[in-house]
Amino acid sequence: MERTRWVNVAILMCLFAICCGREINVKHKRHLADYNHTLATTLVEYASAVYMSDMTQLFTWTCPRCNDLTEGFEVIELIVDVQHCLQGFVGVAKDLNAIVIAFRGTQEHSIPNWIEDLHWKQLDLNYPGMPDAMVHHGFYFAYHNTTVRPGVVNAVKRAKELYGNLDIMVTGHSMGGAMAAFCGLDLTVNHETGNVQVVTFGQPRIGNAAFVSYYGELVPNTIRVTNGHDIVPHLPPYYPHFAQKTYHHFPREVWLYNIGFGSLVYTVEKVCDDSGEDPTCSRSVSGNSISEHLAYYGVKMGGESTCKVIMDPRLAAYSTEDFEGNVILSRDPFASIVKTTTEPNVPSDVI
Ligand SMILES: *[C@@H]1O[C@H](CO)[C@@H](O)[C@H](O)[C@H]1NC(C)=O
Ligand SMILES: *[C@@H]1O[C@H](CO)[C@@H](O)[C@H](O)[C@H]1NC(C)=O
């Protein structure tokens, strides 16, 4: 059924492309997402928590960032792709009535190099099944060609079996935002999942204008939050005069920026137009800040992540490891988790 819908969408897109030529990049027939501040400030905490490297704390949701608006979250699956230094989790947030999926971004100490590389990323991969849609293969493969995708898809399937048809909310910061977008699209197109929402923070561009048109049709419920002068949403570069040829952001951007002076500073949350490249939003300023990349809504992003597995041996019963050393921790959310890992011997620096 979903596949039929997708074929219909594809046919519509082709007809649209033929009749309307180059304008295709800014037209979205579906109603795009409304911005929900409460939801964004909740999801940003998930996107922040996924940077924590202690798997035991994450799996039992006792990490220093695992509280506040995310309290009570139940992790179903934690995926650590050691080989590619990627991390993500899938779980159920009862207060949101949703399955939440979050992806970690690049390690903080490698961010300057990563940003440098972003200037030169080529659109070098045809997105499968979408004529003319081009993406960057590195972002695409981080989600599609690692242990991340099967881990996520499997966990979503199990969560749905256990809880019924919950909404799906996919989030991530930076490179994790790029993965969240590919994941939201994949679940919609290839896994017959409805009700997918994507909220990303400080993500780079991932595809061209044709890709963005498909994306906007298929995952209209997407919010892409940008912050002040954060450099990453400016990359890879967008050239307005060659809008069809270069990278292009998908909608809907929400740009956070400060106005005022001294003690009178407050943050404006500007909901941008449905083009993805609203010239009055993040693009109206120069992207020259890494520090504004590392805090969204006052929540610290990035952090201590390492590419190693840090895990209490008592969690071995929940884990599977492949030949490359990639680890998946998996559990039935109704089973109570090992008591040993949730004892109240919380280190003092956590409080
Ligand atoms: C915004 O999201 C919250 C969940 O975080 C939800 O409770 C609320 O109903 C949403 N508001 C609207 C207007 O959809
Ligand atoms: C995808 O991953 C497989 C196995 O890890 C690898 O052999 C293949 O080359 C990858 N595909 C590309 C195009 O990089």
Summarize the structure.
By secondary structure, the chain is of the alpha/beta class.
What does this structure look like?
- By secondary structure, the chain is an alpha/beta fold.
- The protein has one domain (2-306): Alpha/Beta hydrolase fold, catalytic domain (Rossmann fold), CATH 3.40.50.1820.
- Helices cover 27% and strands 21% of the residues.
- It has helices spanning 2-20, 37-49, 55-59, 111-118, 137-144, 148-163, 175-190, 209-218; strands at 74-81, 86-93, 98-103, 125-126, 134-135, 167-173, 196-201, 207-208, 222-227, 247-248, 253-259, 266-271, 295-296, 299-300, 319-321, 327-330.
- The longest helix is centred in the N-terminal third of the chain and has 19 residues, at 2-20.
- Residues 9-26 and 339-351 have low confidence and may be disordered.
- Residues 36, 38-39, 42, 96 line the site of one 2-acetamido-2-deoxy-beta-D-glucopyranose.
- Pfam families: Lipase_3.
- One of its GO terms (biological process) is lipid metabolic process.
- GO terms for molecular function: hydrolase activity.
- This is Lipase.
